[in-house]
């Protein structure tokens, strides 16, 4: 599970202060596929980083059981001056896995020809994206986080990547942020609604979608 206790996060000050989360206290159960619904600009990306343990709240505590992956497309987890094998060995230290195996899986999934002494920063932008996705999928995490869309697979690796993602996600909890609740119908079985600093968990996606639409309509009526 992921538990939030009186979690606050805000940016700016005075009239320009934007509260992402204001005093959220709730529990996200394991084994669920949870849609994080919020209008653009509400702070869904920031909230995902907080849930993933990459960003600290201003106040409050976030506790989690199980291994948490970083949100897909988040690239700062790679050591840019380290080789692919060295990055794999870092995973070994962090997650108690076989570092050589992780590096080999990441290389295979990326389709990149890996140089034994070549640091990550020396690969092309497309190769880096493929390797980051490969590393993200090389370990079975307990929690995965998706910010709007999954990254595109490397060239000619689409079917393999799709199969691995489906397998990893099937055995994990997923929190998928989107502004379009219909996008995740048939996949997510629960929902979180983030609206003007208030974060609410719903046991079904239908309930979350209804609350999200109602909040958007109320917002629109206030602007008229």
UniProtKB/TrEMBL annotation:
User: What organism does this protein naturally occur in?
Assistant: Methylopila turkensis
Task: Enumerate the Pfam families for this protein.
Answer: ABC_tran
PANTHER family membership: ABC TRANSPORTER ATP-BINDING PROTEIN, ABC TRANSPORTER ATP-BINDING PROTEIN NATA
Q: Gene encoding this polypeptide? A: rkpS
Q: Which domain of life is it from?
A: Bacteria
Q: Does the keyword ATP-binding apply?
A: yes
Q: Which SUPFAM superfamilies match?
A: P-loop containing nucleoside triphosphate hydrolases (SSF52540)
Name assigned to this protein: ATP-binding protein
Domain ABC transporter: residue ranges: 2-221
Q: Keyword Kinase, does the record have it?
A: no
* Family (UniProt): Belongs to the ABC transporter superfamily.
- What are the UniProt keywords, alphabetically? ATP-binding, Nodulation, Nucleotide-binding, Transport
Looking at the UniProt entry, the stretches that span the membrane are none
PROSITE patterns per record: ABC_TRANSPORTER_2
